[in-house]
Amino acid sequence: DAGVTQSPTHLIKTRGQQVTLRCSPKSGHDTVSWYQQALGQGPQFIFQYYEEEERQRGNFPDRFSGHQFPNYSSELNVNALLLGDSALYLCASSRRGTTSYEQYFGPGTRLTVT
Amino acid sequence: KNQVEQSPQSLIILEGKNCTLQCNYTVSPFSNLRWYKQDTGRGPVSLTIMTFSENTKSNGRYTATLDADTKQSSLHITASQLSDSASYICVVSAAKSSASKIIFGSGTRLSIRP
């Protein structure tokens, strides 16, 4: 039973560029949440996808967008990268998007913006 | 304002010793509290989940307590091992159906010395 997977593991981008991060949820899960975790801080909620639509959003600018595919996998897109976007991006999956009980995290993607 | 505060920020103990990490929250209405272990650069892994009616929950050498009246939780680690070196994050959910109401603490960085 595969857990949550994310790709790539590490990524280095230049300011102003765009980046796409990918996430495959745990088997049986249909909801994906994305978090940004700066060094030494707790994860900050970006948004959640369920049934291919953004259902909830945290306090992040429109430069952060996402998508969910029919197979429940998801992408996080960040446009016009800023140095402050450097962080560990975590994907968490759950079932039916209604509870944090069954939220499982992936290993994360480390994004460095130079 | 919904907040989760953890203490201490960092802790160093000798292998084999016990330790206790603290979590205070002001999240309301309370749904559940979760302790995660996060190795450096990796995704968080759930240790315990506690609801309003639960006072204590154990997972091997990890024991979490919850006092819903004082809005405090603790995570006690017994007979620490080198592999316990990690960040421990307290997460409180305000509502079961809202991902944006999941509040993360900044974590306690625990280092175990041989």
State the gist of this model.
The complex is a heterodimer of chains A (114) and B (114). Chain A is mostly beta strands.
Descriptive overview:
- The complex is a heterodimer of chains A (114) and B (114).
- With 114 residues, chain A is an all-beta fold.
- Helices cover 0% and strands 50% of the residues of chain A.
- The radius of gyration of chain A is 13 Å and the shape is globular.
- Chain A starts with a strand and ends with a strand.
- The mean pLDDT of chain A is 91.
- Chain B is mainly β and 114 residues long.
- Chain B is 0% helix and 55% strand.
- The interface between A and B is medium-sized, with 29 and 26 residues.
Features:
heterodimer; A: 114 residues; mainly beta; seven-stranded mixed β-sheet; four-stranded antiparallel β-sheet; 11 strands; 0% helix; B: 114 residues; five-stranded antiparallel β-sheet; globular
Please bin the fraction of helical residues of chain B: under 10%
Shape of chain A: globular
For this entry, what is the oligomeric state of its chains? heterodimer
Q: How would a textbook summarize the main sheet of chain B?
A: 6 strands, mixed
Which shape of chain B, going by the Cα principal axes?
globular
**Total beta strand runs of chain B:** 11
Termini separation of chain B: 41 Å
Question: Total number of β-strand segments of chain A?
Answer: 11
Unreliable stretches of chain A (pLDDT < 50, length at least 5) are none
Point out poorly predicted stretches of chain B: none
The CA-CA distance between the termini of chain A, in Å, is: 37 Å
Tell me the radius of gyration of chain A.
Answer: 13 Å
Q: Main β-sheet of chain A, in a few words?
A: 7 strands, mixed
Topology:
The complex is a heterodimer of chains A (114) and B (114).
Chain A: E1 5-7, E2 10-13, E3 19-24, E4 31-37, E5 44-50, E6 53-57, E7 64-68, E8 74-78, E9 87-94, E10 104-105, E11 109-113
Parallel strand pairs in A: 2-11
Antiparallel strand pairs in A: 1-3, 3-8, 4-5, 4-9, 5-6, 7-8, 9-10, 9-11
Chain B: E1 4-7, E2 10-14, E3 19-25, E4 32-38, E5 45-51, E6 56-59, E7 62-67, E8 72-77, E9 86-93, E10 102-104, E11 108-113
Parallel strand pairs in B: 2-11
Antiparallel strand pairs in B: 1-3, 3-8, 4-5, 4-9, 6-7, 7-8, 9-10, 9-11
